[in-house]
Specification:
It contains 33 helices and 15 strands. The strands form three sheets. It has a ten-stranded mixed beta sheet with strand order 8-7-6-9-10-14-15-11-12-13, sandwiched between helices. Helix 24 links the parallel strand 6 and strand 7 (about 705-710).
């Protein structure tokens, strides 16, 4: 005690020393080590304004500059989130960010990226201004609706530290959360590959074309470019991975530089558009007829030129003709058409917008043409391969352009990824994200109109700027120089790739540490400072797959699928929770409505199939497989998500539907209530009973595992919890899918009765009771075991339920065992509607009993026609669609129980009488029910009289004596066989005997080589203990 007090005093002294110069103690955390606290001294003297009160003494400009200095676009790691759970936090207090620095700028930087600089002009030229406007509007509307749903999630309670994944998973649940989280991770990873491919394209096409390793030969320029992309991409991935591994702080320091590049590039574009209104730039393009020429191999746009009053051919002539002479043989199209030169960027006031309104889709390898100009094609189709035309590298159509463009609007979760670093996440995330989407949407939509109004259509369709001397098309419009866009886009895409390689491993680490995907557990580990080393390695490998594809136009639709899947489920979560009226769903965001989420979900799904229907199906299959894997193998998590609420609502609806009517005989299957016995340690005495249940049910239908503890619930509540844990763990081991119900009752008999009566809910109630044979009923110290068993039989019969009693249950096979041969024997003594036939059929569906054969034994007297009986029984099995061997056992009449014969004979007489009365089907059913009710009433009256007499137990006299049996047999000898046929003609009604005995170790001579024997047990209700079951057929 004294040592603990001394340690506390020393710790208090340490905390006392950690004060600022004004005497106010600084905030300290017990999770920060001494080394980390020593590093914290570097923050002294810097602007650490966290509250409004401090802003009075700190200038606004100084505060803003300090925030910009600490600006970062990195996704938040999982360290903060894990610290909340395991109390092992290691963090240094940093300035809390507001809406502008923490959300708006990161979203702006992530949304404006490579597609804007490299593909937007090409999309406008190909699809036209109108269709491009539709494409951009659809994509921006999708992200805006998703941002509204995200705002609702962010304002519904405290935003957890850890970013978008934690917000989504805690709203969707572990299954959907894990699937969406992995889709988000794959999308972020492929986005890194797309950014790297964009970086290499800018480097090799516009900055330094001579740096290409593979040179084009014989027209193989496209293939050489792909190989260059693969080589350079692999090197850049390795370099970026090393930078991220060494330290994220270096990436963090460059974040402001990358942001500045994006903003300056956008400003340069708008400045260039304004300049074109009064001074358009001089970028001339050369046309042969109406075909656009690539100016990489010639400088003069003319066929001839005059030098010293002499007409000489130009380099363009030599590209189309076989020699430089004027009488050379030239290409026919070259000879028929003139070479013209037009202004590539005529300016805003030129009226070129009218020409660019409509789409100009083309096939792969076609020449980029200005269709408004006249052209003579000649009599023969000329070959264009190898000539200096501008060709389209891919086939273009509307849906393909949607898939390529959509990645340019992703990145809306960049602000929510840093939720733990915001002052007020519930305010900053909605405001900053929606403002960033509004800003970028305006930029994209305005750029479409401005590009169409300023730039000639053939240049817009020239993807790589070959008609303007290999310049970046959007760079030709920029002011003051095209290099502003080239350099700015290069650093912007390079920074975006670095941020993707930094954020994706942290997202994977967060999913791994949640424990919902077991095989990803290894990726939750990292370096001592928490950096996800293994996750970074996996991310680099997946990113390399995108690099090997080597085409930005092919990678873009892939990541579009994953992001659209993620956005779709975000909208789904909000819509579901609103429609289910979840009590905890109370978002403060007042502009939210469930119809917006539903519209966003529908738009995401439509865009997925618009982009690529086969990619959409593949993405859905991947998400579905992840969902089922987490459901099957993942850890149980209860996050209070909306999907669980949807499941409860669906279950309630289904129960109400099931309650409406009784199940048809075609849908009947045993819904089992398993009665277990527990020992003094609350352990299950007969575990094989659950093994047999799983083999019989195979996960289908209802299974309720119940047990009774004797006592009072207030005294046994702890034991009940322990018993439930033991039973559930055993159910998991035996793969028994069902529910556990433990009942506490003053007596075991009453507890079993309560279970039989009340187990289940609504239409989901059991119709079959499964229990083990009472082995200790003959012991003197347990005089009530037989009484409890008999009462269970009676109550099950009164409840019109089937009772299965397994004898020698401990000898039954386990789920791991497999029978290579053997039989399942059914002693079919009395027609029970097919219950005994159904049980072996269900058993043979399981792997344990699959190779066992089914045999049916029936009993006949010596003077019966056994051959005809066998044929009739085979026909009965044929109608039941069961494959089984049929055996007829002939026995003397003295060996057959009088009650069994009486039961069969009564059924024969009823069937014959109803048949002779020639009643309709409904009348026969009503008459049979009336006879049943009368017999039940008379039997109940006899029981009441017997109980009132309270006579001593005596030997029960059967209703039928031997003499009466003989006389009745001779009286009905002619009709006996006909009555037996009527048994097989009865319709299956699943009427079960009082109980069915299942044997594992048969002592029946006819069933010596069987693995199991099913025998129906009939008998009068007695007040004396039941004798041990004799081997059939001696009932």
């Amino acid at each position: 005690m004294g040592g603990a007090l001394q340690c506390a005093q020393q710790q208090t002294q340490k905390w006392t020393r950690r004060t600022s110069r004004d005497g106010v103690p600084r905030e300290s955390s017990p999770f920060i080590t001494n080394a980390d606290m020593d590093k914290g001294i570097i923050y002294e003297g810097k602007n650490m304004a966290l509250f409004e009160e401090e802003m009075d003494s700190n200038p606004m400009v100084s505060s803003l500059l300090n925030k910009l200095a600490n600006y970062t676009n990195l996704t938040q790691g999982v360290i903060e989130h894990e610290a909340d759970e395991d109390s092992k936090r290691r963090e240094i207090k940093a300035p809390r960010m507001g809406t502008f620095i923490g959300v708006y700028l990161p979203c702006l930087q992530n949304i404006l990226g490579v597609i804007l600089f490299l593909r937007l002009t090409w999309i406008v030229g190909t699809a036209g201004v109108l269709e491009s406007f539709i494409i951009v509007f659809m994509c921006c509307a999708c992200t805006m609706l998703t941002a509204i749903s995200m705002s609702a999630i962010a304002t519904n309670g405290v935003v957890p530290a850890g970013g978008s994944y934690y917000m989504i998973s805690r709203s969707l649940g572990p299954e959907f959360g894990g699937a969406v989280g992995l889709c988000f991770y794959l999308g972020t990873t492929f986005a890194g590959a797309m950014y790297i491919l964009g970086t290499i394209e800018i480097l090799l096409t516009y900055i330094s074309p001579s740096a290409a390793i593979f040179k084009s030969e014989d027209g193989g320029e496209a293939e050489a470019m792909l190989n260059n992309m693969r080589v350079y991409g692999t090197c850049i991935i390795a370099l970026m991975a090393i930078v991220v591994f060494v330290g994220v702080k270096y990436v963090n320091k460059l974040a402001l530089v990358f942001l500045a590049c994006v903003i300056l590039s956008i400003i340069a574009i708008y400045a260039g558009v304004i300049k074109t209104a009064f001074d358009p730039p001089d970028f001339r393009i050369c046309l042969l007829g109406n075909r656009t020429l690539s100016r990489r191999n010639f400088d003069t746009c003319a066929k001839f030129t005059k030098i010293d009053n002499k007409t000489e051919t130009t380099r363009l002539w030599r590209l189309f003709c076989d020699s430089a002479l004027l009488n050379a043989t030239c290409d026919e199209y070259f000879s028929l058409n003139n070479v013209t030169e037009i202004q590539g960027i005529p300016g805003v006031s030129s009226g070129v917008l009218i020409d660019n309104l409509w789409s100009t889709y083309s096939d792969k390898g076609s020449v980029v043409e200005k269709r408004e100009l006249p052209s003579l094609t000649g009599t023969e189709e000329t070959k264009v391969a190898g000539l200096p035309y501008v060709f389209t590298d891919i086939m273009t159509f509307f849906t393909m352009l949607v898939g390529i463009y959509f990645p340019s609007v992703t990145g809306i979760m960049a602000g929510s990824n840093r939720s733990g670093d915001l002052k007020d996440a519930q305010k900053s995330i909605p405001t900053g994200t929606i403002l960033a989407i509004s800003t970028t949407s305006f930029i994209y939509l305005s750029c479409i109109v401005l590009f169409g109004a300023c730039i000639e259509g053939v240049i817009l369709r020239d993807k790589f700027g070959e008609a303007v001397n290999g310049n970046l098309v959007i760079g030709t419009l920029a002011w003051p120089s095209p290099w502003v866009i080239v350099i700015g886009s290069f650093f912007s895409t390079c920074g975006a790739g670095l941020q993707s390689l930094t954020g994706a491993p942290r997202l994977l680490q967060a999913i791994s540490r949640d424990g919902i995907v077991p095989f990803l557990h290894v990726f939750g580990h990292g370096k001592a400072n928490g950096e996800p080393t293994w996750a970074l390695l996996l991310t680099a490998c997946i990113c390399e797959i995108g690099i090997l594809i080597a085409s930005l136009d092919s990678v873009a639709p892939i990541l579009s699928m994953f992001f659209l899947m993620c956005y779709m489920f975000v909208n789904l979560a909000c819509a579901v929770q609103t429609l289910l009226r979840t009590p905890n769903w109370r978002p403060r965001f007042k502009f939210y409505h469930w119809t917006l989420s539903f519209l966003g979900m529908s738009l995401c799904l439509a865009l997925m199939f618009i982009c690529s229907w086969y990619y959409a199906l593949i993405a859905m299959v991947i998400a579905g497989c992840i969902y089922k894997y987490i459901e099957y193998r993942g850890a149980e998590k209860e996050w209070g998500d909306g999907i669980r609420g949807l499941s409860l609502n669906a279950a309630r609806y289904a129960l109400l539907r099931v309650e409406a009517g009784h199940p048809h005989t075609k849908n009947w299957r045993p819904q089992v209530l398993v009665l277990l016995n527990l020992d003094s340690e609350q352990l299950v005495k007969h575990p094989r009973l659950l093994s047999f249940t799983s083999q019989l049910k195979a996960g289908k239908g209802l299974t309720i595992v119940g047990s009774v503890l004797q006592g009072i619930y207030l005294d046994k509540c702890v034991e009940v919890q322990k018993a439930e844990e033991n039973v559930k763990s055993l159910m998991a081991i035996e793969k028994t899918k069902g529910f556990c119900q433990i009942v506490v009752s003053p007596s075991l008999r009453d507890g079993v009765s309560h279970l039989i009566q009340s187990a289940g809910l609504g239409g989901m109630k059991h119709n079959t009771v499964l229990m083990a044979w009472p082995q200790s009923w003959k012991l003197t110290d347990n005089p009530f075991s037989w009484k409890n068993f008999v009462d269970t039989v009676r109550e099950t019969t009164a409840a019109q339920q089937a009772l299965l009693v397994a004898k020698n249950i401990d000898l039954f096979p386990a789920n791991q065992e497999r029978f290579s041969e053997g039989n399942i024997d059914v002693w079919w003594i009395v027609h029970d509607g097919g219950m005994l036939m159904l049980l072996p059929f269900l058993l043979r569906q399981h792997k344990v009993w699959r190779k066992c054969k089914m045999r049916i034994f029936t009993v006949a007297q010596m003077d019966d026609n056994s051959i005809q009986m066998k044929k009739d029984l085979q026909m009965f099995l044929y109608h039941l669609r069961l494959n089984a061997e049929v055996e007829v056992v002939e026995m003397f009449e003295n060996d057959i129980s009088a009650f069994t014969y009486e039961k069969t004979l009564v059924m024969e007489q009823r069937s014959q009488m109803l048949k002779q009365m020639q009643l309709s089907k409904n009348e026969r059913e009503r008459e049979a029910q009336l006879i049943h009710d009368r017999n039940t009433a008379s039997h109940s009256a006899a029981v009441v009289q017997a109980n009132a007499a309270a006579a001593a137990p005596e030997r029960v006299q059967m209703t039928w004596t031997k003499e009466k049996l003989v006389s009745e047999k001779h009286k009905n000898k002619e009709t006996n066989l006909t009555g037996f046929k009527d048994i097989f003609n009865l319709k299956p009604t699943w009427r079960a005997p009082p109980f069915t005995l299942l044997w594992d170790a048969p002592s029946i001579p006819a069933s010596q080589h069987s693995q199991a024997v099913l025998v129906p047990q009939y008998g009068k209700k007695k007040t004396t203990p039941p004798p041990p079951p004799p081997p059939p057929p001696n009932f």
